[in-house]
Design a protein that fits this description.
alpha/beta, Alpha-Beta Plaits, 2 domains, 7-stranded mixed β-sheet, 4-stranded antiparallel β-sheet, 16 strands, 24% strand, binds ribulose-5-phosphate
């Protein structure tokens, strides 16, 4: 299979393959959204089908729900599951404290609710997601459609008083129309460039009327699994204070990833 995969896809695949080793029989598992998380859903589906792993998945988007069902993972809502053992998701950026920017795929609200309702959050990524300071990736915020332009103006004004390098905010588009999330809201991307105090920014953003949630994940992520194009993975566990490296072996035994 490695011959068919680009280095970036190999990196995402081995990170996903390593991360699903955290999943055990009987677990309720939050299923993230995005291209890396899609690898994880496929790998988990493979374990369900081949090992008879008995799990329940809680998807963080309609896209992920559809994929999970396709690969054979039983899916329930968060309200049905109530509390989760583990969530595995991708990220747009992570720093050395395992603080994240998420929402590039537009699913930050459900992702944050699901991850917060989990005993443990494992993030999977390729090395390009590591940053010294969060903020080069535009920070998404989810806003309700009513009065979104006023909300945007309030956010830009607030950013002027924060420890950031940029204050531009743009409405995310889907072709000619505003992007609409699974919750019927819009996304505004904040081009802050560098965030000096992510914790403060997250708190202040969520005080602005019209802002539903922001893409900063602070003190939520427990483990980051970084995949590399040569099949290596690095696992950093912030609670254990450990950093380990290993190699993921995989064989070209089937073609379940071909349609990703
Ligand atoms: C979706 C997300 C994704 O996890 C994030 O955008 C990373 O996506 P990808 O794995 O495709 O790079 O937050 O809302």
């Amino acid at each position: 299979m490695s011959g068919e995969l680009s280095p970036i896809d190999t990196a995402k695949f081995v990170a996903a393959k390593r991360a699903v080793q955290y999943v055990e029989d009987g677990m309720r598992v939050g299923l993230g959204t995005g291209s890396t998380a899609a690898w994880m859903v496929r790998c988990l589906g493979e374990r369900v089908r081949e090992e008879g792993l008995d799990i329940t998945g809680v998807p963080t988007s309609s896209r992920t729900a559809e994929l999970a069902r396709q690969v054979g993972i039983p899916v329930v809502s968060l309200d049905e599951a109530k509390w989760l053992d583990l969530t595995i998701d991708g990220t747009d950026e992570y720093d050395e404290d395992l603080c994240l920017i998420k929402g590039g795929g537009g699913a930050l609200l459900q992702e944050k609710i699901v991850a917060t309702a989990s005993d443990r959050m494992v993030v999977i990524a390729d090395p390009s997601k590591a940053v010294e300071h969060l903020g080069a990736f535009p920070l998404p915020i989810e806003v309700i459609p009513f009065g979104w332009q006023t909300t945007k103006a309030l956010v830009e004004e607030m950013l002027g008083a924060m420890d950031v390098l940029g204050t531009d905010a743009t409405l995310r588009m889907n072709g000619q129309a505003a992007y609409v999330t699974d919750e019927g809201n819009h996304i505004i991307d904040l081009h802050v460039k560098r965030i000096g105090d992510p914790r403060k920014l997250s708190l202040v953003l969520n005080q602005i009327p019209g802002v539903v949630e922001n893409g900063l994940f602070i003190d939520i992520c427990d483990v980051v699994v970084i995949g590399h194009g040569d099949g290596r993975v690095e696992v950093t566990d912030i609670n254990e204070g450990t950093h380990e490296e290993e190699r993921i072996e995989f064989v070209d035994s089937d073609n379940i990833f071909a349609d990703l």
